[in-house]
Design a protein that fits this description.
- The chain contains 13 helices and ten strands.
- With 385 residues, the chain is α+β, with helices and mostly antiparallel strands.
- It folds into two domains: 216 residues, no CATH class; 96 residues, Chitinase A, domain 3 (Roll), CATH 3.10.50.
- The longest helix is centred in the last third of the chain and has 29 residues.
């Protein structure tokens, strides 16, 4: 349906639902940000340059060049690192999760089978070409010369009758099918009418088998065993980082907060919401929301401001905890090391210079510092069998 045909009320409902979903995901996103998965860091930094380069916010105002929060004194935060432990079993993925990932990868390499005896069945992905007429007038087509149309039988891409007509046919078969459309069909050209489709089944997709040869040709691993273990290891690492992120606050104590830093961080979050509101207005229209706090799901400015500060305070505590771990680990975070950190994540020297100009060295250094602190915890936390 064309965007201009969407009513204002529906636009607003769509935006509200999107905002609600983003609100639900906020905690998970905050954890992912704090963990600083390397590839995610690069994406966030580069995307952020485009959004915020022209703003007056100073992201590094209360950060040192090495990424530490100014004003935090010894004793303001402590973390009982030795009390953090996990059992290996609770960090490993379930077998079904691993198999689902493998199946998804195999499906991403689906190919049209050359087996001429293969018959289309329910749930199969197929490729068809077709022409259609309504009252003898050409209505729609998908030609093999243009690649045909991929569809999954039973997904009712066109209709249930169309899907049913494909079942039992082989590659190269041609057949006709009539499809009667409801009076209230979304397409006025076909509403209440019957279309006649002349269809050719161009192919039936097959999923490759998971073999050492397939793995070697399509992944960075040489054998099925290595590939499967890589999936397990990836989940294990992600689960461990998430568990560590959640456990830090449970095993730490913060006695004093850097209020200036919290204030600045709340301004950063407000700026992000304002950018989000602008994107909504561009897509849904200028009247979609009357204010930022309305978009965020709050009834007044005071409640919205309190949310920003609570979020900033919580994230500041987490940053202080990682900073404590960093200092206890004896690691360093010089400018050269910070730049090398981002180079290792795939950023060019020019990219780094642009990011420093937009955010300041301290902001980028803090990301590197927190990543190093988390890596230290991953390597040194107690894991029981």
């Amino acid at each position: 349906m064309a965007e201009e045909n969407i009513s204002k009320s529906k636009k607003k409902r769509l935006a509200i639902e999107k905002a609600r979903q983003e609100q639900k995901q906020k905690k998970a996103m905050a954890i992912a940000w704090a963990v600083f998965i390397p590839t995610l860091i690069v994406v966030i930094v580069m995307a952020g340059i485009m959004f915020y380069q022209s703003t007056l916010l100073n992201y590094s105002r209360y950060l040192t060049d090495s990424g530490e929060i100014k004003g935090v004194k010894d004793g303001d935060v402590t973390v009982d690192i030795g009390s953090i432990s996990f059992s290996k079993a609770e960090l490993l993925p379930e077998d079904a999760t691993v198999e689902a990932d493998i199946e998804s990868m195999l499906k991403s390499h689906e190919y049209i089978s050359e087996d001429g005896s293969l018959k289309a069945d329910h749930g199969d992905k197929v490729n068809v070409s077709y022409t259609s007429t309504i009252d003898g007038v050409s209505y729609n087509e998908a030609l093999a010369a243009d690649g045909g149309a991929d569809m999954v039988i039973d997904n009712e891409t066109i209709s249930a009758e169309f899907d049913s007509a494909i079942v039992g046919h082989k590659k190269g078969d041609s057949f006709s099918v009539e499809v009667a459309f409801a009076d209230d069909d979304a397409d006025p050209e076909r509403a209440g009418k019957t279309a006649v489709y002349e269809v050719t089944l161009e192919g039936i997709y097959a999923t490759p088998e998971l073999t050492d040869e397939f793995v070697a040709a399509n992944t960075e691993y040489a054998t099925v065993a290595e590939y499967r273990q890589s999936i397990v290891d990836s989940y294990y690492d992600g689960n461990l980082r998430s568990a560590l992120s959640s456990s830090l606050s449970e095993n730490s104590a913060v006695s004093a907060y850097p209020e200036n830093y919290i204030d600045n961080l709340a301004k950063v979050y407000n700026n992000q919401y304002e950018q989000q509101l602008e994107s909504y207005k561009q897509y849904f229209g200028p009247d979609i929301y009357g204010s930022v706090y309305e978009m965020a799901g709050y009834t007044d400015q005071a409640s919205y401001d309190a949310m920003l500060r609570d979020r900033a305070r919580e994230d500041t505590a987490y940053a202080m905890e990682l900073e404590y771990v960093f200092k206890q680990s004896g690691l360093s975070n010089t400018e050269d090391e910070v730049r090398q950190y981002y180079i290792d994540q795939g950023m060019s020297t020019d990219d780094i210079d642009s990011a420093v100009k937009a955010y300041g060295l301290g902001y980028l250094s803090q990301a590197a510092l927190q990543s190093k602190a988390m890596d230290y915890l991953v390597e040194n936390v107690t894991i029981t069998d």
